[in-house]
Amino acid sequence: MHKGSTYLQIRFRGYIPGNSTMHWIDPRIKLLMLLIVIIGSVVLNSITSVLVLLVFVLVLIPLSGLKLRYILSPLLPFIPFLLLVVVLRLVSGDSGDSNSKVIVRIWKITITESGVLDSILLILRFFSIYNLFILIVSTTRSEDFIKAVESLMHPLQKLKIPVNEFIMVINIAIRFFHILLKEMNRVIKAQVSRGADFNVRKINFFKKLKSMMPLFIPLFVFSIEYTKVMTEVLVSRNYRGGRGRTYYRSLSLIKRDYIFMFLSLTVLGVSIAVKNITDRIITGAVF
What we know:
By secondary structure, this protein is mainly alpha-helical. The chain has one domain (about 5-285). Helix content is about 65%, strand content about 5%. It contains eleven helices and two strands. The chain has a two-stranded antiparallel ribbon with strand order 1-2. Helix 4 runs antiparallel to helix 11 (about 255-285) and helix 9 (about 165-195) crosses helix 10. The model is unreliable at about 1-10 (pLDDT under 50).
């Protein structure tokens, strides 16, 4: 097998069976926790506030039985893109604050204090959301995730929103992702045996894109064929949007779930309080 092709083998780390505290938390509570962290990270424009959310997420990692190295390892291929975004944010940080202190000025590139703070805030936001997302994916079965989304969106049915159809789309997309990933690795092996070169370390973008064509075309054809099969299956089984469908195992909240939900809201409240205190200190209102 070609040396460059082995580097292209793609694996997705999904649900990991376990008996930890995070495994037994209701998936609806997990999604609400993720929503709280996302809202807090995006709305609270303060490093200290987002840092509180990140510490909360890091505390949840030991409760999952997973190692931090395992959670961060899938991020390695995306580090160059993340660094590029951080650098762009760093050099453009002075656009929103003309009074910001200049730290470094090289030719037309200016790095200001606000740019550095915005870059740090961007990194903290990313890791807060990313770590919790991977933590939830690794400790939640796909079927439990679907049931949690359906349960949380159930009130929207009163507004005539097709919740059942939306859940079916999510369910098919999740299952198709694993099928497509397996087919991708199979096509890679087949094409490499025929002499294809998938060396993704090539610098030239057009050469890299051309080398990937033997992979993209079979996957596109496979996706179209799979879509036709899924359509025929749904029609043959008289699919009506899932109305009236029941589950063998229903979701139910217990004391542990309420505790974690309370802790999440408490952490969000602490983050807001920390932001207010920080703003007062900066503006001199405390004094």
